[in-house]
Task: inverse folding
């Protein structure tokens, strides 16, 4: 595949997510996709990935994805994107806050045979949780007061 063709797979992926037609995920994702999160967790298989996306839509009914930049080399595409929506449903045990969220992230996608077979996501989870008012205000990145144990979650 050419770089332009691999980038087109990523554009189709975003269009499918924004259409909410998750039955079409198999058009752009391999059934055995390996998905790695920014925190190092690894998930395997399209059904697990579909469940994660469904959970996002349950927590943010108006969630919208926007590509900011695509860069490619060989069979890999790096995508910088944003997600925006209103936290109007429970998400990962966090009750709805009705907060509007804009979250920037990036993904490194490996594309083989016209489908994504590996996706590694990079994001600022703390910034995202702060927008939901799910993190104590005493947690501030950088400086000597940064807690080594991580963020303190508020579960309402």
Result:
């Amino acid at each position: 595949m050419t770089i332009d063709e691999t980038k087109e797979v990523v554009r189709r992926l975003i269009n499918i997510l924004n259409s909410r037609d998750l039955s079409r995920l198999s058009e752009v994702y391999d059934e055995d996709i390996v998905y790695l999160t920014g925190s190092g967790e690894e998930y395997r298989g399209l059904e697990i990935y579909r469940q994660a996306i469904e959970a996002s839509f349950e927590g943010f009914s108006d969630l919208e994805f926007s590509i900011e930049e695509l860069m490619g080399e060989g069979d890999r595409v790096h995508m910088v994107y944003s997600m925006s929506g209103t936290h109007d449903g429970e998400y990962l045990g966090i009750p709805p806050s009705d907060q509007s969220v804009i979250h920037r992230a990036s993904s490194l996608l490996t594309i083989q045979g016209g489908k994504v077979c590996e996706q590694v996501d990079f994001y600022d989870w703390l910034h995202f949780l702060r927008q939901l008012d799910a993190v104590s205000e005493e947690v501030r990145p950088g400086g000597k007061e940064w807690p080594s144990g991580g963020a303190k979650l508020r579960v309402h």
Summary: The chain has one domain: 3-131. The domain at 3-131 is CATH 3.10.450.50 (Nuclear Transport Factor 2; Chain: A,).
